[in-house]
Design brief:
Strand content: 5-15%
Shape: globular
Structural class: alpha/beta
Largest sheet: 5 strands, parallel
Number of helices: 18
Radius of gyration: 23 Å
Strand order of the largest sheet: 5-4-3-6-15
Number of strands: 15
Length: about 475
């Protein structure tokens, strides 16, 4: 905890944003950092609540010891705070930027809508650690002689690689794209997380002995069977990449795209890379001067909105089939769990028009080119209401309704075919492995992250990567000191 009476004396404050009119002119992060003293005051608000739901199963999946590092920050011990934070979270500079902060929903002070600014404090601790040189390579004292291959360099793969590297194993990470980071690099826009934070971690991990092999499409350029033959264990962290099918008539029109090729393409532009991706090939997609419609109500849809505005879209409309949620949830019925309530992302606040309880009936066009989206209102069962149809002008439309499992054209093609790994019973065909040892049906092959659990949050990916690393270390060495 922080100061005993801090929550009574200090108002909740979080970092501010640049004005929307300024931030849509660039793709950089636009948060305005708080001073150390301001952050220490926010950490002081952490109260002696008795049961800290923030780092329990209802709050933080990686069980960050939030009251502890809040207290350390309040007392000015920033080095102690980052050590504590790193004991549960390999990458707090990632989670402090892109995690939706279920910990704040679970905070006892959220009963009064004034939770501790946990996410703001977490990001400040990580950024301070870079300034003070605390985040540097910590190589193992001795090597074990065991080799581990990791397929995929997203947050799950990165977390597992760092843990296994520090345990002394020879770790090799195979990444299909030209740079590590997975969809954290190529799917999340730079205005939410600039990619030099990923580069810093990769540099640190290389200093700890982890090897990254980029431009290697496992299942195509190198077989999984080869990795199993060359390594003592293989961990598959390929993510969830197959777009959920919308089955909307007219989705074959020019101008209608899944969200991810659009986001990946712009991230590659910002990163100075050719826009063509191994997994997301497409001709150039630019929203400049266009009327844009985004189908879907989640984070990916919001990222499309922010990207379109920065490219110069004339108008952006977001369609959400769900009813408009209440402004405020019933705390006594929901807390400390994540609540369904009206939320406005920074991208939506930049000028998006939002339509709730609306179904997308058809993409309409002329001569093969999209010209509009035909919609209608729906009832509580999502059934169309007669007489409510309308058409929205659209030059571009992005479908952002989630993901339905791992990509099936490389690793999964081999796992389904020659290797015959067991997948779950859902249509998504995630790799089946439990959340205790992360073993698949194939000997020495493990799976963690979205490829196992389905699309989820970065904190869940980090948790699964860490836990899978512990399981692998224990299997290889007979015991382990890695935390679960």
């Amino acid at each position: 905890m922080g100061k005993v009476t801090g929550f009574l004396e200090i108002d909740r404050q979080v970092h501010k944003y640049q004005p929307a009119s300024d931030r849509i002119r660039h793709f950089r992060e636009f948060t305005l950092p708080m001073s150390d003293k301001e952050v220490e005051k926010q950490a002081a608000r952490c109260m002696d609540c008795g049961i800290p739901y923030c780092h329990g199963p209802t709050g933080c999946p990686i069980h960050n010891q939030i009251p502890d590092w809040n207290d350390l920050v309040y007392n000015g011990d920033w080095d102690g705070a980052i050590r504590n934070l790193h004991s549960t979270n390999n990458f707090p500079e990632f989670t402090g930027r892109i995690c939706p902060a279920p910990c704040e929903e679970a905070c006892t002070l959220n009963l009064e809508d004034i939770p501790v600014a946990i996410k703001t404090v977490e990001q400040a601790i990580a950024d301070k650690a870079y300034e003070t040189g605390h985040i540097r390579p910590y190589p193992p004292e001795k090597k074990t002689g065991r080799r581990v291959a990791i397929i995929g360099s997203g947050p799950a793969g990165m977390a597992a690689a760092q843990q296994l590297g520090r345990a002394g194993h020879d770790v090799h990470v195979y990444e299909r794209e030209s740079r590590p980071g997975g969809l954290m690099r190529y799917g999340i826009p730079d205005f939410k997380i600039e990619k030099h934070y990923i580069d810093r971690r990769i540099e640190q991990m290389q200093g700890e002995g982890v090897s990254f092999h980029c431009g290697v499409n496992v299942g195509v350029d190198k077989k999984v069977s080869e990795l199993l033959a060359e390594h003592d264990a293989v961990l598959y962290c390929g993510g969830s990449e197959t777009p959920r099918p919308a089955n909307i008539p007219g989705d074959d029109l020019s101008g209608v795209y899944d969200a991810m090729p659009y986001l990946v393409q712009q991230n590659r532009r910002v990163g100075g890379e050719p826009i063509q991706s191994v997994a997301w090939p497409s001709h150039p997609i630019i929203a400049s001067g266009q009327h844009v419609v985004v189908v879907g109500g989640g984070d990916t849809a919001s990222d499309c909105i922010g990207t379109a505005f920065r490219q110069g879209a004339v108008r952006v409309t977001q369609l959400d089939i769900r009813p408009q949620p209440p402004e405020k949830e019933d705390k006594l019925a929901v807390w400390p769990y994540w609540a369904t309530k009206m939320r406005t992302s920074s991208s939506q606040a930049e000028g998006a028009e939002r339509e709730f309880q609306v179904a997308t009936l058809e993409f309409i066009g002329e001569d093969g080119q999209l010209t509009g989206v035909r919609c209608c209102e729906v009832d509580e069962k999502r059934k169309p209401i007669a007489g409510t149809e309308f058409v929205i002008r659209a030059d571009l439309a992005f479908i952002a309704i989630g993901f339905a499992g791992p990509a099936g054209d490389s690793v999964m093609k081999e796992l389904d075919g020659e290797i015959k790994v067991v997948t779950d019973s859902r249509r998504s065909k995630n790799v089946e492995a439990n959340d205790r040892d992360y073993r698949t049906s194939v000997d020495r092959l493990y799976a963690a992250g979205d490829v196992r659990r389905g699309q989820s949050l970065v904190v869940w990916a980090i948790r699964e990567g860490r836990q899978a690393a512990r399981s692998i270390d224990e299997a290889l060495m007979g015991s382990t000191v890695l935390p679960r």
